[in-house]
Structure formats: C-alpha cells, structure tokens
Write a structure and sequence with these properties.
Layout (H helix, E strand, L loop, with lengths): L1 E3 H15 L3 E5 L15 H5 L4 E3 L4 H13 L3 E8 H4 L3 H8 L2 H4 L9 E6 L14 H5 L5 E3 L4 H12 L5 E6 L6 E3 L13 E4 L4 E5 L4 H12 L5 E5 L2 E3 L3 H11 L2 E8 L4 H13 L8 E5 L8 H7 L3 H13 L3
Parallel strand pairs: 2-3, 2-4, 4-5, 5-7, 6-7, 10-11, 10-13, 13-14
Antiparallel strand pairs: 1-8, 6-12, 9-11
Helix pairs in contact: 1-8, 3-5, 9-13, 10-11
C-alpha cells in the first residue's frame, strides 16, 4: 500500500500505544492540534489525554518530566517540534538522560524516546532549519537514529522503546509528505546496522536521513554516465556502524560523504575520520564531503537550495573522485 512518511510515523506511534500500556506521548500541541507537522493527528481521540499529553511551552520542563516518568517505570515518547527547540532541553538530555545510568552505577536506566524534526529545504528560515544530529551523536549514553525510508519510519520506534538507554529519533521535515509503498505487515526493524540502499563498484555515497533521496538521485545521474555508485544509509549515528562504512569503501575504494549539517564538526567529518583510520590503504582517492554551506540557512528558496547538498553537487563530487584519481 502507498503511504507517506507522516503516516508511517503516526502508525508507529499508534502501534506503540496499543502494544505497550506503559507508553505515552507528550509534547507541545501533540493532542488536540495533532502535532506541529500532523504526525500525532487523531491519537488523542483514540487513546485519550492520559496517553497523549499536551505540555506547556517549556522544552526543559517537559523533557525533564519525561525523564522522570522513565525513571518511574513508564515509557515516554517525547516530541520536540523542531531540533532548534531541543537546545532549550539540552541540559536535561546531556546532563540527565545520557548520564544517569553511568552515574548511578547501572541502577537508573532512562528508557525515554525523544522525537524531533530536523533539516532544511522547506523555507522555514535559519531558526527552524538546523541539522544538529552530530551534536547529539557526540554524546555518550544516547542512541541516535535517523529514519530515511518508509520501513524505518514505521519500524524504528518500537525497537527504540525496547532500549534501556535514551533514544533520539530525528525525522527530516522534508520527508513527511513523501509517498511510497509500504508493506501492510511492516513492523519493528533493526537499529544497529547501516544498510546498502543501492549496490555499486566505483564510489560509495555515504549519507543518512533527508539526504538519502538526494544521494540515490545522484547515483541515477552517475549511472547514466557509466559510474556505478553504491549508496550507504547510515541509519544510526550513535553507535555508528563503522564496519559497514569500511566495508563499502573496501568494495569501491572511493567515498563521498553527504551531510546536510555544516561541514565543520559534522557527522561527515566523523565518518571521514573513521575511513582514514580504518581503510586508508583501500582508498584510491581522498574522501570527499558534500555538506551544508556554513551560513545560517537562508529563507529565499533559491538561496536555501544553494546552501544544501543537491543531487547535482553530490554527483559532481563523485565524478571528481572517480575521474580525477586512480
């Protein structure tokens, strides 16, 4: 059946609330309004205000309440509207959720799931277009997952709820309306391993989240020129599946890392470093990176698109590493 990412995320929430009596959803406007992006629409009517809880406009407050609920044995699913607002709860996430298991000597697990929208491309201007996944992937004690397919949008949540550690799920806002086929029996998926979304022999395009469709589109452009690009979807940013990264580079001997974040200190920087550490002698060319331009994301559509990785810029980087070396 055909569905959208928005509907797949909603079905994942519905399934979790049906299967787990300890699970509940909380966040700003998740109830009567149906969520800022419509993901929780209809859940309040179906499950009631005890299971779908609207919160005050205080990220530090309701994320802290979610952490307390998790410590008390519940399984909270906390929605933060957009990733920039999560900075207001960073103290709770970094200093409490991520550290309590360690600081309690293993006595206090925090099984909280925090969902938030990330990414640019929708003309929401600088404050609502951040891609800060790398910031959270930097923090020990968290698991960070980024669904980029309908199967992962539908299936990552339930697996995340089984994890005793806090899990951050980043949903790229540009994917919400995207439609595609999803099996009616789609269910929980693995969140430990990266996935090859397109096999190839000449160059590896390594990416995640909202950049995956662009990498796949770039692979199509390259295929028309006789260049077979392999596309690796990282899926989980912490812990990073280093083995899969090194395996794809070993097959193709060239890599382009695509990341909507700003280039400096990005996930792409970490992936590039791991390739250099673990597969240096497999490389026939230096690792290339295609990242967001280091400016606040513009509002004007043509400038916003110019500031982000696009299929053409990804393909150009791949041509360079394939044609210019080896």
């Amino acid at each position: 059946m055909d569905t959208t990412f928005r509907e797949a995320f909603r079905e994942a929430l519905r399934d979790a609330l049906q299967r787990d009596p300890l699970a509940f959803v909380m966040g700003e406007d998740v109830g009567a309004y149906g969520g800022c992006f419509g993901v929780t629409k209809g859940l309040l009517t179906e499950f009631g205000p005890e299971r779908v809880r609207d919160t005050p406009l205080s990220e530090a407050g309701f994320v802290g309440a979610g952490i307390g609920a998790a410590l008390g044995g519940r399984h909270p699913i906390v929605e933060i509207m957009t990733i920039n607002f999560s900075l207001l709860a960073l103290d709770q996430i970094l200093n409490n959720a991520a550290t309590l298991l360690h600081m309690s000597g293993g006595q206090l697990a925090v099984p909280i799931v925090i969902r938030m929208t990330t990414g640019a491309g929708r003309q929401l201007a600088a404050q609502h277009s951040h891609s800060l996944e790398g910031l959270y992937a930097h923090i020990p004690g968290l698991r960070v997952v980024v669904p980029a397919t309908l199967e992962d949008a539908r299936g990552m949540l339930w697996t995340a709820l089984q994890d005793p550690d806090p899990v951050i799920i980043f949903e790229h806002g540009g994917l919400y309306p995207v439609r595609g086929p999803l099996s009616p029996d789609a269910g929980p998926v693995d969140i430990d391993r990266a996935a090859v979304r397109r096999p190839g022999r000449d160059v590896s395009l390594i990416t995640y989240g909202g950049s995956l469709p662009k990498a796949l589109a770039a692979a199509e452009l390259l295929a028309a020129e006789g260049i077979a690009a392999e596309v690796l979807d990282l899926r989980t940013l912490r812990p990073l599946d280093t083995a899969a990264v090194l395996a794809t580079v070993t097959r193709t001997h060239r890599a382009v890392v695509v990341d909507e974040e700003w280039r400096s200190g990005s996930v792409a920087a970490e992936v590039s470093a791991r390739i250099m550490e673990g597969a240096f002698y497999e490389l026939d060319a230096p690792v290339a990176r295609v990242c967001g331009v280091e400016v606040p994301v513009p509002y004007a559509q043509h400038l916003e698109q110019a500031a982000l990785p696009q299929p053409e810029s990804i393909a150009a980087a791949a041509r360079d590493v394939v044609g210019g070396h080896g």
